[in-house]
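COURSE: Structural Biology Practicum
ASSIGNMENT: Worksheet 4, Part C
STUDENT ID: 0417
INSTRUCTIONS: Below are two proteins. For each, the amino acid sequence is given first, followed by its structure token string. Answer the questions at the end about the second protein only.

PROTEIN I
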Amino acid sequence: MALNSVKETPLTVDVLIVGAGPTGLTLACDLARRGVRALVVERADALFPGSRGKGIQPRTQEVFDDLGIIDAALAAGGPAPVGMVWQGGERQGEHRMFDATEATPDAPYASPLLLPQWRTQEILSARLHELGGRDVEFGAELSGLTQDGEGVTAHLSDGRTVRAAYAVAADGGRSTVRAALGIGMTGETVDPHPILVADVRIPALDRDNWHMFAPTADGTGFLAICPLPGTQDFQLTAQFTDGTAPDTSLDGVRAVVAARTHLAADDVTEVRWASDFRPRAAMANRFRDGRVFLAGDAAHVHSPAGGQGLNTSVQDAYNLGWKLGAVLRGGAPEALLDTYEEERLPNAAQMLGLSTRIHRGEERRGAATRQLGLGYRDSSLTAETRTGLAEGALRAGDRAPDGPYAGRRLFDAFRGPHFTLLTVGTDAELPLLDDELVHTCRIDAYPPYGKGLFLVRPDGYVGWAGEDTTGLTDYFRLIHQGS
């Protein structure tokens, strides 16, 4: 009787997040620190167990810095090892997959961080708990979803009903929510060859290199074995010919390792997770339907080449989080949420194309894959009021660089759910703005910014820039009051 009564009483939250991958957990963390009540439901019985999205790009590391998890991520992960090409059981030489870069004061995270996806999710889940967020509801599959002018009603497979102001589909490339909304995806097969991905234990293999084995004489595809930092595991990837179905069992993985490398089958002592997939690129025709938003793989599916999928997904959540918080807790107009699709769809399309070109060998992993150059210059939320700027100058819409500030870093000042009004090399008198919504910082001339005033959004992008405060108050009022 009591259990039935609980099930008949709708659970009410501000935001329902469907899916407990990196996208859903990032969004849940961001909402928790804004005082937004979010519920994450996950149809699986536990967090995803595999390494799949293992590359954390510099821009995503900056997001993790803001969320308070960068130290945990750096402690658990490590740099990508130098590639080692093998042929005929002999080392042929090194292969560097990434262009070498050095950290600078304005970009403190210069290189990709190797971190298994399962570990990233554990770190995000722990942070959600620290922030006071509600624990993930596992074994909770969505069975139905309806919406009206006031909110969304979701039905779960265990009989429970959830009522939320908004819902976010973060439930992967085969999104149940996207299907329920009738939103199509447009895309293509990037490569018809099946790829086996597995987390394996191979004690006989050294962990100093990312081991790469050239295709065999009969044309069988590549095989690569990458050590995963902080674990005893390697991630194995093996390409197969079109029309074949990779065997994901221990015996199947052992067979392909023995056939394509100098290792013996028994050198593979354990397969901890394995998957068979076909690389494809696809994007949802829209990222919003009323009070429901698509994020991560539910909105865009990437080839794993270049490590863009998870990173683009995390940044979807980072973009949407502050906007939901502003509407639900800050009195911002609901129209602010329209800018989520406006800003993220072009970025996702850009990264989708990049992933595809890298997979096909048409472009090298370089500055674009680090995602520090992405921005929102063309967004309706962007206002650049200065004129005569030099080519290459920081503009409204760009990522706000880090730098020294009062014995700390600018990223320390930006960290949190607030806007930051940064004045650089000017003593301009500042208008009175809500101290809780806008924090103010003054620094002397600093080349990455030049000179002027910069209103930095909660997601670390310059929303407004000017030589003085003309138009600043109107801009901020438009975002938070809609008029």
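PROTEIN II
(use this one for the questions)
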Amino acid sequence: MALTPSNMLPLGTKAPNFELVDTIDDTKKSLDELKGTTGTLVMFICNHCPYVIHVSDQLSKLAKDYISKGVNCIAISSNDVENYPQDRPELMKKNAIENDYIFPYLYDQTQDVAKAYDAACTPDFFLFDEDLKLVYVGQLDDSRPKSDIPVTGKDLRGAIEALINNQPIDENQKPSMGCNIKWK
């Protein structure tokens, strides 16, 4: 497990479009059909990463708190499932159900979407406004496994709240930290 920080994609970057299979219902879904009316949170996660497991309850809560406010959440796993079979699509579906994810959990088999977003780690968070322009890239909060800091989601929640309330989002953003994406 190599601790890897986010690549800090420049704010204002337009969200790269995609069409991927949602492992929960086995249908193809595009960014255009999944985007929110107020904002869109794209999260690169996976099943086995201890950093994702550490925050999975908060990801579920975050979605439940903000989808009704027009901020849709989308999770994507881009890991190489040959070398990391615990991240296979059928296990993604199981994981989504167990964690009560109410958002799509998409499989990026070619890893092209992760590359387009310059995603580096799991979890990696990208918040876009209603025009799909990047307004936040960075950490959920300061908590890490074994850190004794509670998982609150304060950094990402602060950015989402600012977006919803048409307030400026602090441009001083801390990178997320987690396992590196498992490239083929």
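ANSWER KEY EXCERPT:
Q1: The chain has a mean pLDDT of 96.
Q2: The longest helix spans residues 50-66.
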